[in-house]
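Sequence design from tokenized structure. All designs in this work follow the same two-part layout: the structure record, then the generated sequence. An example of the structure record is given first.
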């Protein structure tokens, strides 16, 4: 995934090690993310993964991927029949993007489902985490994920939001629901939270267990450009001032186009007490940028591994280390300058990070949490142990966050 860290800091975290050969007799299972009938990628009991690709005319093939797969790319070996294979070191549990590098060209694996990450359709592998059933499909009632197309006056284009409606939504036509606006990271789109993040099953399970209040979840594409202006992209060396126009355009889409559309189309409770915004990585940046600027519309604010950007007009590169000092009097246009007033308006401020994420994230988020607590601002801080800038961190985040909303 071309998340913020990968885009501007070019940082990858993974399991250190080299590829090794699959052991004879070692039990393995096809990944749940494979296309039907495909035997590989195959997950071994120690979470090592065997990848194969039939390419008899290729001169070299490697497998490369995101944070949790390890420090690749891993060279593959061709047998007499033209089948290339490699078994990578044990991977971190969760979902990981990957691709083949065939004679220097990156290609998707025909044995894998495709997922939108790194700004394109690419392959993905699901590595099970023992005992982690909170994002599994379980028996019982399930909500639905619907596509809502709407014409944005801000961009002049049709946009698609995916909308999760909770179990019982259609059977209880008089019931109204609170709404969580949930954003993806850089290089992904509105499908990320349901395909890679399995948000709908996390919510299904929490609601079934009575741990979370039934809610509507809206997932929109986080990129926008006002009519007549180019789309702003995050690139290495980008500063907050560079990306601010893109965030402002998305802010207008959310406030003036999306929220009115959702309130008119679904049975929402259309007030700030029943409206939350959250996002991962770039989406966390957007959440703090937008929600803290519109506290008259949001009473719940959460950033999942979102880089802390206290000054949106700063020209300091986003990947700067150490991050800028967090001054609660000036950060985010003074949103925290009056802690008593902030605490009375905001029901929940939630910040999270994985313990294996790069220093860029851990230091910035940790410093902000310390400064906020010292100033008397109520903030919930959550750490996902052993996970990096990847989907298992954000699945755990949502599992902790959702029960805290709308109470």
């Amino acid at each position: 995934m071309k998340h913020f860290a990968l885009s501007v800091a070019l940082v990858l975290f993974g399991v250190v090690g080299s590829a090794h050969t699959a052991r004879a007799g070692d039990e393995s299972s096809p990944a749940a993310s494979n296309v039907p009938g495909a035997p590989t990628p195959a997950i071994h009991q120690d979470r090592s993964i065997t990848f194969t690709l039939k390419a008899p005319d290729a001169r070299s093939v490697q497998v490369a991927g995101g944070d949790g797969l390890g420090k690749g790319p891993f060279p593959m070996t061709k047998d007499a029949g033209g089948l290339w294979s490699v078994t990578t070191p044990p991977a971190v549990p969760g979902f990981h993007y990957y691709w083949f590098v065939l004679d220097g060209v990156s290609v998707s694996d025909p044995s894998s489902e495709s997922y939108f990450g790194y700004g394109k359709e690419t392959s993905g592998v699901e590595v099970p985490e023992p005992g982690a059933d909170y994002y599994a499909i379980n028996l019982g009632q399930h909500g639905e994920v619907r596509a809502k197309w709407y014409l944005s006056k801000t961009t002049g284009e049709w946009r698609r939001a995916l909308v999760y409606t909770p179990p019982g939504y259609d059977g209880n036509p008089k019931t109204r629901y609170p709404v969580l606006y949930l954003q993806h990271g850089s290089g992904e789109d509105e499908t990320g939270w349901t395909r890679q993040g399995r948000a709908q099953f996390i919510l299904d399970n929490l609601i079934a267990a009575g741990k979370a209040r039934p809610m509507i979840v809206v997932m929109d594409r986080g990129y926008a450009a006002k009519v007549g202006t180019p789309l702003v992209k995050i690139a290495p060396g980008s500063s907050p001032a560079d990306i601010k126009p893109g965030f402002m355009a998305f802010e207008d889409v959310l406030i003036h186009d999306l929220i009115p559309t959702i309130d008119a189309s679904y049975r929402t409770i259309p007030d700030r007490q029943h409206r939350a915004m959250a996002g991962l990585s770039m989406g966390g940046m957007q959440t703090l940028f937008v929600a803290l600027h519109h506290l008259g519309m949001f009473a719940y604010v959460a950033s999942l591994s979102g880089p802390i950007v206290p000054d949106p007009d700063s020209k300091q590169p986003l990947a700067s280390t150490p991050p800028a000092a967090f001054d609660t009097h000036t950060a985010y246009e003074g949103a925290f300058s009056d802690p008593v007033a902030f605490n009375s308006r905001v029901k929940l401020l939630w910040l999270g990070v994985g313990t294996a994420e790069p220093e860029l994230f851990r230091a910035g988020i940790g410093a902000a949490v310390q400064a906020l607590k010292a100033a008397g601002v109520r903030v919930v801080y959550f750490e996902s142990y052993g996970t990096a800038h990847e989907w298992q961190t954000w699945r755990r985040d949502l599992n902790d966050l959702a029960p805290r909303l709308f109470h």
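The domain at 4-127 is CATH 2.60.40.10 (Immunoglobulin-like). We note this feature because it recurs in several other targets discussed in the main text.
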